[in-house]
Write a structure and sequence with these properties.
By secondary structure, the chain is of the alpha+beta class. It has 23 helices and 20 strands. The chain is elongated. The C terminus is likely disordered.
Length: about 700
């Protein structure tokens, strides 16, 4: 019988016999190839340590001033959770969305691969990968990247090892703890707290579907990035849960109607991310970040004050944003920093309030023109500590001397306290009332190099343009530098330049590492600092500030402060301080182009936020200074220089530096001056000094 079959085979046509032999040969080669690949990748897979699945690399804990946790060091928030502590809703949502046959396949879903192949062929490009939950776990734990044959084979064979070693529940538990869910959250426990502020065991169907949907494209579907895209992705996950019989139709309809339920902006973990970025950078000067793995980085941040400051700023921006046209939505930005004066430590820090700017710190990184908020820094160089400085003329000034906003015309007075020009005034009075033309004349008289040098002494490290416009705050600086400069004015004797977030570090081995920032001697004279403080205390007693002080409960507290704005009203500033802390608030256009829609943005926008924060930080009892006395004004004739008579047209001038009362008698001999006119007597008496500095080119500060 056997011989008969062989004879029959020999009777087949030659081409048929050739195809048969070729098929057998190819099959044999294929078997050998599969065997070779299997042996090779089984060996490769055996080199992967499966214990890595059990490791939770969470980095060092970053603790606040009261030892409360504000995050993890590497902006990788991860927290372990047991399988039984995860909401069944979330397990069902992830299985339905990512791998509906997870509990039945052996780590490789052949049906899923075939489905993906068909979908990719129809699309003409790779749209689906067909990866199982086990394969995704392998990619995340072992960092397998790229779309190539080698990576896929490693993934398949390591997945096979995992499936043979662990149960499905054990695999899923490791997946739940390692998977990335966007916005810096690793693992479902971290994401649940970060997005919803709740335990992962209490997630609703809608919340579970949202988390499951983020896995596919975390950078797109994170609700902190786009609520619209996140909602669409969540609804697709809900449909998959319905198709897999994890929820019924009524649950599907109800869940799709629910809002996302994510935390409001001011409570989101992303605010801590900006601080964590700064902590990581600062840590490099103290210890190797790897050396503090599982240790604790103790910071100076007061988390309660941080939360209060974030909400106060966000609420202010939200109210004010309604004034902008629709095309300028999200144009308004802001930041806050609160410092301990002597140590320089940062107690609260809000680097950004817009979610799309969550990785750009506008307090530590951005550079903006400080405008009139820079005047106290300039006057730290222009005031004579011996109080012998001659008076300076406050009168219209040819803008060619400063070149602010143009090269022609009269220098604009945009200080918030400006009413009219007031003739010959003291330098102290010029600062008290933000007199810009007087500031330019003083700067030309003293030399702008003094302003630049003293600014460096006070900690302004940003490049300053060597032109008189810098004395008016036209050079762009970082807000943290301005806050530190003001804080120095409050100190006596010593201070710590460039303070930061870290107090000390405690490693896993209990090694204590202290921040190396030493105390430094203040180079600015005590007399100048005293005079500046007295002026800034008097400034806070101006009538136009009293309503804001009363609202914050800070009337008559001896608080020092200064509000200001940049040319064109693009930036609003307030810096207030007492003997112990300094608070800076900045508001401005994120694009640096739009003017703030307020007559006096420093006073009306930034100041209320800063005062509220100072009141909260000090429990309404700031440690201020004695308020300056309020002597009455004297009146003299601007032409003769003598005391005015009833026959004179007179200008009332406050000859005492620390009066906070504005004088209303603005008459002078000759024509009455105003903001736009150039009185003849002033033009006749004033001779512009020779240009001692080159003219400033026109530039605008940018972030």
């Amino acid at each position: 019988m056997k011989h008969r079959k062989i004879l029959q085979f020999r009777t087949w046509p030659k081409w048929v016999r050739f195809l048969a032999f070729l098929t057998l040969f190819c099959g044999f080669i294929a078997v050998l190839a599969v065997a070779a690949v299997t042996i090779r990748y089984a060996k490769v897979a055996s080199a992967y340590d499966l214990e890595a699945l059990n490791e939770m690399k969470v980095g060092a804990r970053v603790a606040g001033k009261n030892d409360d946790t504000i995050g993890r060091l590497f902006v990788k928030s991860q927290e372990f959770v047991a399988y039984d502590d995860v909401s069944p809703n979330l397990i069902n949502a992830i299985v339905a969305t990512e791998d509906s046959r997870f509990f039945s396949h052996g780590g490789i879903d052949l049906r899923g691969i075939a489905r993906a192949a068909v979908a990719n062929a129809k699309a003409g490009r790779i749209r689906q990968g067909g990866s199982t939950i086990t394969q995704q776990l392998v990619r995340h734990v072992y960092g397998l990247r790229g779309r190539n044959y080698d990576r896929k084979m490693r993934e398949v064979f390591v997945s096979n090892r995992i499936e043979r070693r662990y149960s499905k529940e054990e695999i899923l538990q490791r997946y739940l703890n390692h998977i990335y869910l966007g916005s810096g959250f690793y693992g479902v426990a971290s994401a649940s707290k970060g997005y919803f502020g709740k335990s992962v065991s209490n997630l609703s169907v809608s919340e579970a579907a949202l988390l499951a949907s983020v896995i596919k494209l975390p950078a797109v579907f994170s609700p902190f990035v786009s609520e619209e895209d996140a909602t669409a992705a969540r609804n697709r996950s809900l449909v998959r849960m319905f198709q897999c019989d994890f929820i019924n139709r009524e649950q599907l309809v109800a869940a799709r109607e629910e809002p996302l339920g994510i935390l409001p902006e001011h409570l989101r973990f992303r605010e801590a991310n900006l601080a964590l970025q700064a902590v990581k950078k600062e840590l490099a000067d103290i210890a190797d970040p790897d050396a503090v793995e599982n240790g604790v980085v103790h910071t100076t941040v007061d988390t309660h004050l941080q939360e209060f400051a974030t909400k106060a700023l966000a609420d202010r921006v939200s109210d004010y944003q309604e004034l902008f046209p629709a095309e300028m939505e999200d144009a308004l930005e802001g930041g806050v920093v609160v410092l301990e004066n002597e140590s320089g430590n940062i107690l609260a820090h809000v680097g950004s309030i817009q979610s799309r700017n969550q990785f750009f710190d506008r307090i530590l990184q951005a550079r903006r023109p400080a405008g009139t908020a820079f005047l106290p820094i300039s006057y730290s160089a222009l005031l004579d500590p011996n109080k012998t400085a001659p008076k300076v003329l406050d009168a219209p000034l040819n803008n060619g001397s400063a070149m602010v906003g143009g090269t022609k015309g009269i220098l604009g007075e945009w200080g918030e306290s400006f009413d009219q020009y007031e003739g010959m005034i003291s330098p102290e009075y010029a600062l008290l009332n933000s007199k810009l033309s007087a500031t330019v004349r003083l700067s030309n008289r003293a030399g702008v190099h003094r302003v630049l040098a003293t600014s460096r002494t006070l900690g302004i490290d940003s490049p300053l343009r060597p032109y008189v416009a810098t004395a008016l705050g036209e050079s762009s600086i970082r807000p943290i530098e301005l806050a530190q400069a003001y804080a120095t004015l409050a100190c006596e004797g010593t201070y710590r330049r460039n303070g930061g977030f870290i107090d000390y570090v405690l490693t896993a081995d209990n090694d204590y590492l202290k921040s190396p920032r030493p105390l430094e001697r203040i180079e600015l004279s005590a007399e100048t600092r005293h005079d500046l403080r007295q002026i800034l205390v008097a400034r806070m007693d101006l009538p136009e500030y009293r309503s804001h002080l009363a609202e914050a409960g800070l009337m008559n507290r001896g608080l020092a402060g200064f509000s200001g704005s940049s040319y064109g009203q693009r930036d609003a500033w307030f810096i207030g301080f007492d003997r112990e802390i300094t608070c800076l608030v900045w508001l401005g256009s994120s694009r640096g182009e739009e003017a703030l829609l307020a007559t006096d943005p420093g006073k009306d926008l930034a100041m209320p936020v800063g005062l509220a924060i100072l009141a909260e930080a000090t429990d309404g009892e700031p440690k201020g200074w004695d308020r300056p006395r309020q002597p009455g004004p004297k009146v003299r004739c601007l032409v003769s220089g003598g005391l005015a008579t009833e026959e004179c047209f007179t200008r009332a001038e406050n000859l005492t530096v620390f009066s906070a009362s504005r004088l209303t008698n603005q008459l002078a001999c000759g024509e009455s001056p105003n903001r736009s006119a150039q009185p003849n007597y002033l033009l006749a008496q004033e001779k512009e000094p020779e240009a001692i500095m080159p003219r400033a080119p026109l530039v605008r500060g940018t972030d």
